């Protein structure tokens, strides 16, 4: 099987990321049965499992870089991809090669329909299991795709888990309240695990602590059991104290300090931190696409993948602290997002707004975004392409592109900014 043939086969399978009304499994039983046919490649992997609404991708990447700085060979599984499907499966920052991708797919293909129909996400998760085991990684870091309890990544059995900020998103499958969503996310908690959590609203914290007790696990909250304080954020990065030691991370925004904090705590709790100076150096050189990423300095153009109300609030706070002035906002969104709520937050930092399409079958049209905005008395201009919006917005910088990671990917490609570190 060639790489092209592997991709073509994958495209014949159900892809929830392209579905306007994505399906969610009732159980993981069929997936477990499928994995058994492949020799249970998920077993025996040592690592970390990360769930949450916002920040789980950044946290997974940060944790992998911390582990790598300590000399470990680290497998990283992320979703969705920004540039290339292979970036979802990485070892020490390098994407899975086309030959390995094709070879693993050839092994998987005969069993895809043996136990029901497996999805694209399940196949890629399985490929990560196979690849990490074959390459004998020391640790693997798995980001949950959606939810937690019924996510394909939840078949792994690891000792350490992280729960990032939990808020409303994907309510059509995870529940209508943040408490219902929290219960789904907490599905990754298993007996005896060490769980590190970012600060949560009180109702969510109570759910996490309750589920940890039920599973006889342990939980440590940043800012409570774990000493933590953010100092400041600027265009040069973010400063914070963790356990009485001051760190600077190149990622911009107080929320990124929280992501680093839980990653540091989890690595420390797992007993894998040996050289803190190497960690400090690694944190100063992080680069993750679509997270308050500076694409151009003059005029200043920034891309951020905020796509729910909570992430919009954090984006607003970052703009206010870091830039200290309003922005020309370019906004695109996928369907089933709270467009009115998000724009209701971002309007306070926008001096003008341009609505654009996202390169996805799930994209809202710019015309629909404008209509939604007008309902909450927000005005803006429709642009048929991101390039056209940029031609207008660049005359009145700084410019902020936001609403979807897929839109950020388009922006990054336009400016030839560096993609995922270690890209082949």
Please tell me how large the radius of gyration is.
Answer: 21 Å
Number of helices: 15
Structural class by SSE content: alpha/beta
- Give helix % range: 25-40%
Describe the sheet with the most strands: 8 strands, mixed
In what range is the share of β-strand residues? 15-25%
Q: Could you list the spans in which at least 5 consecutive residues all have pLDDT below 50?
A: 420-424
Could you state the oligomeric state of the chains shown?
single chain
The side-by-side strand order for the widest beta sheet comes to 4-3-2-5-1-6-7-8
Break the fold down into its secondary structure elements and pairings.
Layout: H1 3-10, H2 29-37, E1 47-51, H3 56-69, E2 74-77, E3 89-91, E4 94-95, H4 98-108, H5 120-134, E5 139-143, E6 160-163, H6 171-174, H7 178-185, E7 194-197, H8 202-214, E8 218-221, E9 228-234, E10 237-242, E11 245-249, H9 254-269, H10 276-283, E12 293-296, E13 301-304, H11 309-323, E14 327-331, H12 339-346, E15 350-355, H13 366-375, E16 381-382, H14 386-393, E17 399-402, H15 405-415
Parallel strand pairs: 1-5, 1-6, 2-5, 6-7, 7-8, 13-17, 14-15, 14-17, 15-16
Antiparallel strand pairs: 2-3, 3-4, 9-10, 10-11, 12-13
